[in-house]
Design brief:
single chain; 125 residues; mainly alpha; two-stranded antiparallel ribbon; 57% helix; binds zinc ion
Length: 125
Amino acid sequence: MKRDPRTIILTLRRCFKLQCPVCGRASVFAKPFNLKVHCTACDVIFKREEGFFVGAIMANVVATEVLILVAYFSCLLFTNLNDQTMLTVLFVFGVTFPLAFYHHSWSLWLGLDHLIEGLPQRSER
Ligand SMILES: [Zn+2]
């Protein structure tokens, strides 16, 4: 399905704000680390079949790995930290970033699914 750039930007903006990628009127999370089953405003389904969110987890892992590599090479090039300090900083980053990025990776995965094939309505199920 072809999407115009304004729709893509609008959807991504909603994803970064953790709002429904379809309507943008409700949050996709009921509480921290707890995805809603469906949108309370437009009724699209957020919680999907088993395995659907493996992509969100993979996106979180890949983003963490890429940022650790960037941080590692930045430390090598622009600082003179010793190895122990650098490894400690990278370890703390590697533990805290996936937790901080968790909600956004799930929201972005939902938004990507919305852009590619559209999220199903509850009545379609
Ligand atoms: Zn909605």
